[in-house]
Amino acid sequence: MTGLSSVRVAFVALAAAVALVLQTTVFPHLAWHGVGPNVVLLVVVAAGLARGAHFGMVLGFGAGLLLDLAPPADHAAGRWALALLVVGHVAGRVRQDAPAGVGGALAAVAACSFLGSSLFTLTGLLLDPGAGVPDLLEVVLAGVVWDLVLAAFVVPVVMRGLTRLDPAALAT
Length: 172
Prior knowledge:
CATH class: Mainly Alpha
CATH architecture: Orthogonal Bundle
Oligomer: single chain
Number of helices: 6
Order of helices and strands: HHHHHH
Number of strands: 0
Structural class: mainly alpha
Distance between the termini: 20 Å
């Protein structure tokens, strides 16, 4: 691993750790009907958009596993790891096809937030049936709105940090 790539990995690990701490300590107090933003998901989307599908998948799995294990987790471990792995892949694939700019990034955040929250919810239905689908759809949509609001603050910072650590990424 080169010095620049190790700095990039350290940056994204720090971003994911800060997002995890904010998501588990600060944002539960601002939640609407128990639903708050998924800051970790936003970091994974930003990394996927900035560095591609492979980078997004690896970060998504690692950050999702941390999210699964961080207190006050009350679900089966691996659900967020699976959801964020898929989100990282989709965000990286969007990078290739979507137009660059704010609109493309917000569309990617909305799609990835819906996808990740839906995957997490569907695995919950399979592993712990009990909640009704209409209630879960309301939770997913509220999460997407939260993520879109917070995306303006998180996604540009992470993407700018990753592209500054590797200016060659702008050419791809």
